[in-house]
Amino acid sequence: MIKLIEKIEGEAKLNFSFQEGRIDDVQVDFMSSRGIEEILKGKSPLDALVINPRVCGICGHAHLIATVQALESCYEDIKISKKAKIIRELTLNFEIIQNHFKWFYLTIFPLFGLKQEIMKALHPSQLMGKAIALFGGQYPHTSYAIVGGVACEITNMDIIKLQRYIDETIGFFEKNVANADIQTLQKLENTADIMTKQGDLPDILRTIEKNGWQKLGKSYDRFIAFGENSCFAKGKLLNARIYRNVFVEDVRESDSTTSFAKSVHYLDRYYEVGPLARAMIKKNPLIKDAHGRYEDSMFTRILARVYEIAGLLTHSRSLIEELDLSEPSYIKPDIDISQLNSSGSSAVEAARGTLIHKVEIENSVIKNYEIITPTQWNLCGGDNKNRGVSQKAMIGLNNTDIAELVFKTFDVCSVCTTH
Amino acid sequence: MPDRIEGVKKLFTSRSARVETNKGESYYNDLFERCQTRLRELRVSQPANDRLDFSEVLSNNGVDRRDFMKWVSATTAMLMLPPMFSPLVAEAAELMNRAPVIWLELQDCAGNSEALLRSDGPKIDEIVLDIISLEFHETLQAAAGFQAEKQLEDAIKTFKGKYLLFVEGSVPMGMNGQYGTIGAGAETFYDHLMRVSKDAAAVVAVGACATFGGIPAAAPNPTQAVGVMDVVKGKPLINIPACPANPANMVGVVIHYILTGQLPELDSLLRPKFAFGYRIHDNCERRAHFDAGEYVEEWGDEGAKNNFCLYKMGCKGPMTFNNCSIIRYNEAVNWPIGVGRGCIGCSEPDFWDKYAYERPMANAKIKAPAGGVEKSVDEFGLGLLTAAGIGIGIHAIASAIGGKKEDGGAE
């Protein structure tokens, strides 16, 4: 039995057991908790808007959007302007983009024996942080979204700055990550086409190939995504078929005896969430091709996450074109939220996958609040019958270094997992 | 109660609460000499690490000398030092690798690390603090697991009594500390903090959680979370609250330490006065609208479109001490009031329970002393101190320790 301690955002403990030189089981434990759901109970529903972004320092904005949408779903009918929707979506995109850059250069690089590229991680993340701050005031931990819209009143000046931040980030991506025009990159359909490019991403992929690791880290090959917007689609992929009807009500959490992280399953099955899941459900040609070759392996997972940046950047650029500044930022709801006795839920695609919030409001206060984070889907410890997604991906490998790499291709965040 | 208010008033208007931006020529001349001596000593000492050459890193990142000197003047001003100190601040920045920093993450969301390391702050702040001086940071360092634990051990031993310990996150005391453990031996956060702080030169609590307990300590405080100053005793301690703390303030503290070998002057909540000496309200870009009685009355109204004052929407700027209105966030791109959301008071103790954002002032659990609007606003700080659930006595003792360092000269 070997123990491995991982420092990520917080900490997880991996407890491996070996049989005949191969990992035959691994226990994943998260060792700290803050009890955020307990803290929310009895507080004013609107307080959740400032508390929840603090669940996570890396994907706090996704938590903000999940909160505001959960609260809005408590209404029978609530109007949100298109402008407010676009602003929320843009900021969500920026947060995902900055996360992926940091993951790639800070977490993945050293695992391939390369130096951490701190400035390569920082520069694009700073640009995206600034883009978020234009709408949100600061990053991390913004609270600019309110029930009924957004608080910010942006001007054309802000739009010009925004375009510059996006273009600069695209420039960085084209120069460093994959050396080609971003439009060309988007149209790729064959894995071989990206392998022949220059850049940090193809370099890493070539290293995986050279080491013969392409098929390592396979899990259940089941994917799910709930967060639907102009960029992401909802659905699940099971037995090579895509099903569009999935319901948040069927998502269940169950306790773990050894870890603060609860397990999450959909109709009694574990699913992988995140960029790979999103790309598969959206039928992205390049990722589908890579998946056809290597299935849900570390190769496909790394490619999907980094490649998602390109899609999000160009999508954001086109979203800006649709912004109509003359629309209202905020439309006052018919009833004040404190007058509602209701419940609601939301699902948002965060950097690491589907984030779900469920809320019950009674007598002007929060009666119950449930947060289900992406890392719970991917990294939960499983149960007696079935192993969790990342566990399954590590079982069968022959050393803990490779297992660590596989584990980190899921982009671990323990502060979110336990909240 | 009147006694108590009087007492608090006295404390609030006492010397410790005043920000003196000009301490007189002889003070500065004396300080200048001490700093020079300190920097000379540092220059001949061994670098804590030889990873990077400062000027090389600057030029590699496209920062030229002019940008650097701009940053130097801004930092000198932020530390409330006269311009003659600029060359010394520049030198201190270049000697950053002489001050080892160890960074612990306890019960947190990594938001301050994010703010510091990755998402925020002018480039030079980042270069100065993030890359050069961090001896140990769990998130940033490449080492993991047992290797990382050993690295921490080594850092503690090598820099015994010399390192600055930055702590992010609160300390869960419930269930014998089992709400947060670290490492293979499942050491509790409390034990971990005690062990690493023992040999620190000073402890810097960063962010709302590490300073006053933050979100984990919000009612009903399920894990019985407390701030660093509630458990670490007998050490010079400094609080840099806010959620997240502003990286500029973290850099300021380190530069001040390099420069003088001391902690900067602190207020009664152990916050550096250079950053927390004024209220958000004092320098708010919307202050003129407050004075003119122009308020946002409802989200999205004409007032909101015209950037009027957010006081009636529950802005806590009048009773929150911090320099956000000057420094702002994300390379000064913006700040919460800039997007019309108002201040939530995140650098004050217990703000989650006392005045979470959505409750306008009238409904907040703290009351301003009687008087007109402007008066009550100006004295909100008093209400705040009265309401602070933390024993003022503790701070008095702790500030005395911090203060001694400030007065007593060299380390």
- Helix amount of chain B, in percent? 40-55%
Number of strands of chain B: 9
Which outline of chain A best applies? globular
What is the terminal-to-terminal distance of chain A? 29 Å
Describe the 3D structure.
The complex is a heterodimer of chains A (419) and B (411). By secondary structure, chain A is α+β, with helices and mostly antiparallel strands. Chain A has helices spanning 36-40, 48-51, 60-72, 82-111, 118-136, 156-177, 182-186, 191-195, 200-210, 275-281, 285-294, 298-321, 374-379, 389-394, 400-408, 414-418; strands at 2-8, 10-19, 22-30, 145-146, 149-150, 223-225, 235-238, 241-243, 251-254, 263-266, 342-350, 353-362, 365-372. A 3-stranded antiparallel β-sheet of chain A has the order 1-2-3. The longest helix of chain A has 30 residues, at 82-111. Chain A starts with a strand and ends with a helix. In chain A, 59% of the residues are buried. Chain B is α/β, with parallel strands linked by helices and 411 residues long. Helix content of chain B is 43%, strand content 8%. Chain B is built from 19 helices and 9 strands. Chain B has helices at 2-13, 25-44, 54-60, 65-78, 86-94, 111-119, 123-132, 145-158, 189-197, 207-212, 247-260, 273-276, 287-291, 302-305, 324-327, 351-355, 373-378, 380-387, 392-408, and strands spanning 101-105, 134-137, 164-168, 171-172, 181-182, 187-188, 202-206, 225-226, 237-240. In chain B, strands 2-1-3-7-9 form a 5-stranded parallel β-sheet, with helices on both faces. Chain B has a two-stranded antiparallel sheet with strand order 4-8. The longest helix of chain B is centred in the first third of the chain and has 20 residues, at 25-44. Chain B is globular, with a radius of gyration of 21 Å. Chains A and B meet through strand 1, strand 2, helix 1, helix 2 and helix 4 of A and helix 6, helix 7, helix 8 and strand 5 of B.
